[in-house]
């Protein structure tokens, strides 16, 4: 059964522990079936307000890319597992994916917190891009071998009219001499009596009673016929006029052995590549998902700064509310965002028909919210709600800008261009 995860950032007025305790109390009282976890985000380097606004736009594009790569790898795993019949739980750093999400810990060694946010995001994007390129190369190599093998199998298992006949014909079925030749006739299944009654008279010099059935499928039967070599072309023409197909065939034990060895080699190569690709996908999915969670942490952090201002004071957590409890949980979260700015994030119905919010978006909340879907194979997707957009100077964004300037004793000069280059 699918589980739906939310990543939420709530403003902190006094202490994060008090907000956490209040949230736990409200969830246990009004939505006890909603799992709740802390989402630990370290104090990252903020940079300038202008860089945060620019980064906020880039995060949307980068998230779509990282999410897409994650889904590509997961779908490839599902396809490979269907072929092999195996099924293993996906893991990240040795733990189940949902456990990694709900117990997320920032990897300081891989992503130093003192690095600029854009540098962290670019590093994540570059790492995922390399994995995607490697995936394309590996999948192309595997698909090339599989396509070649499938083509051979189709020739060996298709209709007698087109399939390879080398594994159906034995040396003793063929007579090749200076004057005699054996032809292979493809006879419609329901015309076999007609063939047996007429093949000796299709031309002169056909060896009587030389036709023998070698194989039969759902549509056709394979027969041999021996005749003099000099009338072979006339026999082909007469047989075609009667609805019988004469297949060109030359028996060669060396060629048959070569084809057999090639088939065995392709089978081994396909299994080796499938196993190697599957193991690589397991490992790479964990790397991409880990990178995705760090990316989401950066996004929660940057959106929270733009929403709540400086210094960073917010509580990030992960919830998994059942569908029936989503409205109730949203109400709890809004209650914990008790501020005069909350009205700007209400829907049209809640504020008497007047739409407030950023950029006229009525689907906003007074807290930073990311939505995620965790399936049996685990997906996580981030959707920003109420993102502060550059150029939309709402009261909430203005108050954040004022707080940013006050915290750093920045003298307000001009707001029309939204350019603040001072380091925060």
UniProtKB/TrEMBL annotation:
SUPFAM superfamilies assigned: Vacuolar ATP synthase subunit C
InterPro entries xref list: ATPase_V1-cplx_csu (IPR004907), Vac_ATP_synth_c_sf (IPR036132)
Keyword Ion transport among UniProt keywords: yes
Gene Ontology CC terms: vacuolar proton-transporting V-type ATPase, V1 domain
GO molecular function list: proton-transporting ATPase activity, rotational mechanism
Keyword Ion transport attached: yes
One Pfam family it belongs to: V-ATPase_C
Keywords: Hydrogen ion transport, Ion transport, Transport
PANTHER family assigned to the protein according to its UniProt record, in alphabetical order: V-TYPE PROTON ATPASE SUBUNIT C (PTHR10137)
Task performed by this protein: Subunit of the peripheral V1 complex of vacuolar ATPase. Subunit C is necessary for the assembly of the catalytic sector of the enzyme and is likely to have a specific function in its catalytic activity. V-ATPase is responsible for acidifying a variety of intracellular compartments in eukaryotic cells. Subunit of the V1 complex of vacuolar(H+)-ATPase (V-ATPase), a multisubunit enzyme composed of a peripheral complex (V1) that hydrolyzes ATP and a membrane integral complex (V0) that translocates protons. V-ATPase is responsible for acidifying and maintaining the pH of intracellular compartments and in some cell types, is targeted to the plasma membrane, where it is responsible for acidifying the extracellular environment. Subunit C is necessary for the assembly of the catalytic sector of the enzyme and is likely to have a specific function in its catalytic activity.
Family to which this protein belongs: Belongs to the V-ATPase C subunit family.
Complexes and interactors: V-ATPase is a heteromultimeric enzyme composed of a peripheral catalytic V1 complex (components A to H) attached to an integral membrane V0 proton pore complex.
Protein name: V-type proton ATPase subunit C
Organism per entry: Dovyalis caffra
